[in-house]
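ok here's the first one, seq then struct tokens
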Amino acid sequence: MMAPDERFSWALSVMDIPPAAHVLEIGCGHGIAVSMIAPLLTTGSITAVDKSAAMIAKAATRNAGNKAALLTGGFADVPLLRQRYDIIFGFNVNIFQKPPGVEMQRIRKLLSPGGLLYVFYQSLPGGNVAGMKGMAEQIQLQLETGGFEIQNIHFKKVGTGSCICLIGKSLLEL
């Protein structure tokens, strides 16, 4: 399995976040991605949400020196500080593996016109790119059903695992 910061380094290279971007992470866990994104932003911002108070506490400790908004709550109803985000992403977040619901509607509303959604998943150890293609197809179907057009799909083999990234753009500018 690839090291956590290795997968996030790959994710950052895929997202290519501009310094003025307003970024939202769904399911931030320990705050590793936040710690890598925050220093890149000059006039932009990073907001991260996790339903676990314990994870937000760990993310806050990791990001003590960074300017980041860390919020505890379920994504569907947590109050956010901004109306729109240029980039919304999640890594191994289950809302993208189930039929589109309130969360997908909220993502569409929160994306700035032209903004992008990045959905990342990492395989279990020993997982390969071929095995991740089935997951990518499942997520693509959920995103398309939820009102997103897939812009690109990336596969990455690193170490003993693999990652995928689906990039979506809302079909409805809300």
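and now the second one, same deal
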Amino acid sequence: MNTSIARESIAENDKNKDLMDTGILPKSRRAALAALLAAGSLLASATAFADGSNFVKVESTHSFSSTISALKTSITSNKMMVMGQINQGRVLSMTGLHLQGESFLVGSPVMGKKAFGMDPAAGVALPTRVYVWEQGGKTYIGYIKPSSVLTQVSPGFAKMAGMVDQKITMVTEGAAK
């Protein structure tokens, strides 16, 4: 359900609440209708939020270390590069927490030149951070859609941001197969 449908649903709920306030409906029916309307509004809001999520999580068919290797290969084959890498698992092990997790800063110098030429504040979103982690015996690759951050920096980034989203999707899905 998209946000316009959610808004229509909420508007319809408001209209029905007006009927209840006029006393046209008996009290027991008013209470039942009020509960139903409230549940519908919550469902509409939750569904709209879920559809609008900018977090992408892909389950890998590989082990953690094989996913790391596959990600690096997929980055290169998609004409991008790793511009930075953080072994968060190793850093967190200093605190006593043991987990498998690595972040990669993934970008394209060619696209970066265009983006930074338009607005140096593009550095808030680029390069894209891609995280690989293991949880419950499974390995995942996740990232926040670059478009969700780039378009907040400037609406002028919309077209480029869509291309970056597509590229990162190709990279992560290629690595997860």
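notes on #2: Residues 27-51 form the longest helix (25 residues). The chain is about 55% helix and 20% strand.
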